[in-house]
Give the backbone structure.
Amino acid sequence: MTDGPVLLHGARTPGSPRAVDVRLAHGVVTEVAPAGELEARPGDEVVDARGATVMPGLVDAHVHWSQWAQVRRRVDVGHARSPEEVATIMAAAAPGAPGLVVGHGFRAALWSRPPHKDVLERAAPGVPIALVSDDLHAVWLSPAGLAHLGRDHPTGLLREQEAFAVMGELSALPDPGELDRWVDAASAEAAARGLTGIRDFEYDDTPSTWVRRAEHGLSLRVEAAVWGPWLDATLDRHHQTGDVIGHLVRLGPFKILADGSLNTRTAACHHAYPDPDDGHGALNIDPGDLRDLMVRVARHGLHPAVHAIGDRANAVVLDAFAHVTGPGRIEHAQLVASEDVARFARPGLVASVQPAHLVDDRDVAERHWPDVHARAYPYADLVAAGARLELGSDAPVAAPDPWAAIAAAVARTGDERPPWHPEQALDVATALRASCGGHLEVRAGEPADVVLLDEDPLHADPGTLRAMPVRATVLAGRFTHRAG
């Protein structure tokens, strides 16, 4: 899928007035030299960078890509402030909609009343409705929606494993060819924001799905994670994390859910939630079983990637990693006990974090983690302790815009309010490195995944970072985005 050689003339390096020429050929950065030293060769496409900043392409370290592609075809209820408001939105969308009416994005953590199937029934009698929560840990169904999916439930609000099963069924509703077209469109939009890679945690046989898609060409480099139902088949094929399984596709880590989420109040915490019904949240797996599973997959060359949001869940996962040989990841790490921060510096461990969540959930954290929210999203403490951070979006929980994530990590706010716990802010360079493989310079010998920016991000304020104009994106030496 690589095109012919490309010679970028006169690009700037981040934070420096130094201009460079960069040659890309055969999917690799072949040369980087001071501006004016590289001459065009026959067959080169010569691009005058005109002083644009060149840096490695950005990677979203945590997405659910099929769901992101589908979300934009679902009814958006993300701004609704009550169950009744959601029901009104869904009722307005119901006329003329064929079959199940699917919405996305409800956020019940700040509502005074919980979602209930009867609220949907009163607004839209007999209409099959399914709503996926913003955090992907709950599904809210109307009575007809429950019947449509062959289920019965006293409230219609399904959480955790019950919800994941329904989300899998909803993701299977589009024709695979149609879903692939939606994925292609989403990938092209992501490339326009400078993304060259994603790590996809879609709950599916994700590696097989991406190998099939790669046969028709991709706009992003993909690491495709493995989930429990497909573990044995993966081991039978002797595949390991990092193996090339298709063009631009590698096998990703093995995903495990240690707990739930903040918005659904299922994140496992040392403290109790204010609502007694929520208790301390819950672990989704026994600690001993978690340890044994992590040890097993690591022994076969699969890197464990463990979802942990509450401070108890993070402690349990860190305990388990003490028995694991080799690399691994903790996904989210939203609330961390002070005594556990230093344990994230374990060699080979990545703290995969999503800064947009701290912007979206600061009010939720203050309500449901009232005494401990100063320890939420502790990015600066993790970096100071020697942890390796990677930034992502958790799309569709947040849009897969790397610049929104970088700006949130730096500014700790997304509106007119002052920064939330600014002592945990990252400097721009650290946030950028956590988004593009650990370094900011394009280097010879590395994949030809690069981005050209109209602004130097190291000299940009948060507003400029958030709206960063991307002039061009190159994946494996091929332009996937060009502005103008």
User: Anything to note?
Assistant: The domain at 73-159 is CATH 3.10.310.70 (Diaminopimelate Epimerase; Chain A, domain 1). Residues 176-191 form the longest helix (16 residues). The two ends are 23 Å apart (CA to CA).
